[in-house]
Amino acid sequence: MNKHKQFLLLTAALALVAAGCSKAATTTSTATTNTSPAAASPTPNVTKVPAKEGAAAFLKTVDGLKGQLDQKQLNEPKKRSSSFVVEWATFEDEVKLKYPELYVKVEKFLTPLEAGLTKDKLDYALLEQLNDGLKGALTELSTSLNENKGAVNDAAISGSQALQEAAKAYNKYVQDQGNQMVSLLDQLNTAVKSGDLQKAQEAYVASRIPYERIEPVIEKFKELDGVMDARVDDFKDATDPGFTGYHRIENLLFVKKTIKEAEPFSARLLEDGKKMQQSIAATNIEATDFVTGVGELMEEAQSKKITGEEERWSGATVPVLRANVEGAQQIYELVKVELKKKDAVLDEKISKTLSSVIEAMNTLSPVGPTWNEFNKIEQSKRVDLKNKLEALAEPLVKLPGTLGQ
């Protein structure tokens, strides 16, 4: 096996293992704590800095880590991982918006590096490679910021008649998904009140699908998203009164299996879903929003969601990922004619990688009301799916730059 392929497999496996793909660690107690170091964590409350300033400072931090890695004398690596999360959070939002392709390049190395630093036994050779890759990505980002080049051309995207039409169609799609979400949340609430646990579990997963399809633009509704889709990692534990939404219900239905306790939370989630439905109807989503958001979502899918952290208790990772990909496919279908005019090679690559990902997911878990639990799928197959999602993220993140030409 060549070194490059070995590196890719190692980083993929590291992201999966370090994040605790096995559900066992999270189901041994009803008061589940944050046991998965690479699981999604709340965005730190940090003081934002200009991306130009943040990138330069982060480069110095990465250089400092390199010296310690070279000497194989790394002090408090878990704290270093946490400090990376915080430092990146001070400027990542600006990068995500203006330089989505470079954002994904940074995340490609940063996410497994953060995970690797939390392991009890450090793989210094792998950490050095990841740190070098991160330095290269940050250097490219810093250069672009200093030269004021390569940012998304929002004016060109917004001014395109074809993309304006795509935006109209996408707004309707999101509204349709919002309507489906409310209908399915109503069914979830009814199932919970019926006392039928299996029916409630199936209704829970079904209600996730329309929500996950609109994730490319969920930032438009981030206040409600923060309530409806918050992870337990954001709270003291799974019994924290502030922990509500989908994943509180998930814990109650799949871990505690106490359906009665889920009643107030399913009712609250339905009301929040109706609020989001109203917010969707009152919001105009621009083409820049979804052509930028789709690549970022696929990057999150292949680096974080693939670990199983989002549906850690239900095991319904594949249905959720499938919904994310279906949402991405909808965006691609709306812009592909314009994309093909500007870059036929990129268009073909997105089309092929979409088909590859969908085929892989459909072999891992059936389409329909049942699903195969993610932790019971062979790790080699999970790594293969991660690699296919990454192959899809790479061309999708080029959409804003290409369509803005």
Automatic annotation (TrEMBL):
<dbReference type="Pfam" id="PF09375">
    <property type="entry name" value="Peptidase_M75"/>
</dbReference>
<feature type="signal peptide">
    <location>
        <begin position="1"/>
        <end position="24"/>
    </location>
</feature>
<dbReference type="InterPro" id="IPR038352">
    <property type="entry name" value="Imelysin_sf"/>
</dbReference>
<dbReference type="InterPro" id="IPR050894">
    <property type="entry name" value="EfeM/EfeO_iron_uptake"/>
</dbReference>
<comment type="similarity">
    <text>Belongs to the EfeM/EfeO family.</text>
</comment>
<keyword id="KW-0732">Signal</keyword>
<feature type="domain" description="Imelysin-like">
    <location>
        <begin position="167"/>
        <end position="394"/>
    </location>
</feature>
<dbReference type="InterPro" id="IPR018976">
    <property type="entry name" value="Imelysin-like"/>
</dbReference>
<protein>
    <recommendedName>
        <fullName>Imelysin-like domain-containing protein</fullName>
    </recommendedName>
</protein>
<dbReference type="GO" id="GO:0030313">
    <property type="term" value="C:cell envelope"/>
</dbReference>
<dbReference type="InterPro" id="IPR034981">
    <property type="entry name" value="Imelysin-like_EfeO/Algp7"/>
</dbReference>
